[in-house]
Amino acid sequence: MKAQQVNVLSEKKLRSIVVEVLEVILSKNIENLEPQYSEDIGFFYPDVLPIASKYNVSEESLLKELTKMGVLKEEPFKHVIRCPSCQSVKLISHFKCPNCGSPEIFRRTAFTHILCGYIGILEEAEEKNGVRICPKCGNPIKKDEYEVIGMMFHCKNCGFQTEAPYPAYECQLCGRKFDYQDADYHQYFRYVVVKEKIKELLLENFRILMQGALQKRGIRAQINTHITGKSGLSHSTDVLVLGKNKQITIDLVIDRDDVFKILGKSVDADAYDHLALIRQGVEVTPSIQENPRTVIVIFDNLMEGIETAAEKVEEMLRG
Ligand SMILES: [Zn+2]
Ligand SMILES: [Zn+2]
Ligand SMILES: [Zn+2]
């Protein structure tokens, strides 16, 4: 059912999630997202998991979406065997007989005892205090005193001998038993952040989400447009509200560069009202704060900032 929820993810929801992930990447200055392992939940992405669970989507489908958008680049991280039923990586592995499927399969190591030249099966030699005894010379078979000639696995159930028994697994979470043919071979990726794409993608999503928040309040707005100032210069504007008596520009300020962009505009295009959504921590020049026709909304969470900005615009249009 979870997979289905991901497929019917609405465009608005996807944009909101993307904005939240980009904000985390920006605020923590993250360069790559690497899976971590926990005993309880297996592999997970610590910076993405809280957002993914909040919106009830899988972390990996979210990361795939961001990769498609060009803001992340995937690099192989680990190939892992997972339970085909519950995707857990907590598995107990053992061998099975390829002939009859019995788990009663034992290793037999053919060896030669260097001291006396005896050739036999190591596992069949008598064991005393954890050390095998050579059946020919009676000396303990020490590590550096024998050579391995070959290794075979022998099935106690059907007598089959093989060099390649089947790996088989038992899931510690759901209890499913399965062999290598049914195993879920899963590739985990490390995601490298494409820095220069973050701002572009954040802006693109902001404009559409801002327009949507205004629309919900019955306010029509244009996005990614230009206005002309009294100097005749053209200024780009993320969102432009065309009210009956008032025209309001709305701009997102992510970093210091953006501050100068809105500064010039608020001075030159003084026939307009301005609203600046400024990311917390970005230093603002006093001339912006003192401009009576510029309203500032400082945000920590952009989705909340958009809602606050939409309310402010409503107020500005009213009076
Ligand atoms: Zn067998
Ligand atoms: Zn010997
Ligand atoms: Zn399982």
Overall number of strands: 19
Main sheet: strand order: 15-16-17-18-19
Mean pLDDT: 92
Which ions, cofactors or small ligands are bound in this entry?
A: zinc ion
CATH architect. name of the largest domain: 3-Layer(aba) Sandwich
Query: Strand share of the residues?
Result: 25-35%
Order of helices and strands: HHEEEHHEEEEEEEEEEEHEEEHEHEH
Number of helices: 8
How many domain modules? 3
**From the alpha-carbon coordinates, what is the Rg to the nearest angstrom?**
33 Å
| C-alpha geometry | rod-shaped
Commentary on this structure:
The protein is an alpha+beta fold and 319 residues long. It has 3 domains: 2-76 and 188-193, Arc Repressor Mutant, subunit A (Orthogonal Bundle); 98-164, no CATH class; 197-318, Trna Endonuclease, Chain: A, domain 1, CATH 3.40.1350. It has 8 helices and 19 strands. It has a 5-stranded mixed beta sheet, sandwiched between helices. The protein has a 4-stranded antiparallel beta sheet with strand order 7-6-10-11, with no helix packed on it. Strand 16 (234-242) and strand 17 (247-253) form a beta hairpin. The longest helix is centred in the middle third of the chain and has 22 residues, at 195-216. The model is unreliable at 1-7 (pLDDT under 50). Bound molecules: zinc ion (ZN) (3 copies). One zinc ion binds at residues 113, 115-116, 118, 134, 136-137, 139.
